[in-house]
Amino acid sequence: MAQGEDEVANAITPGHAGMEHRQGSRRRIIASVRIHSRDTKAAGGIVDNISLDGMFVSSAFVPEVCTCVDIEVALSRGLNSVLRIPGLVVHCCESGFGVIFRQLDTAAREFVEHCLR
Hints:
The chain has helices at 5-11, 106-115; strands at 26-37, 40-51, 54-58, 68-76, 81-93, 96-101. By secondary structure, it is mainly β.
């Protein structure tokens, strides 16, 4: 794990899927995404809601808690522009999983802020 991720992972208690991990307000959005992890090829999903701290992704692919994932969002079909948002899975359920963001770059931070307007 990258620096800082181990502290987050240690704070996560397995079996508490209903725990609230995000501090700020969240906004419901619907955005199609691709999910990438070390253990699997890309899988599809839908972002259900987003906050400054993280997001919930509805997907048949549900990675284990403490798995690092990259959430890929297509910004423009015509330009083939893709944004990758790094996250750490903090809870899962049958319908998907929640992630907290890992070190967002400027473009990813701007995307999240835009979604919250």
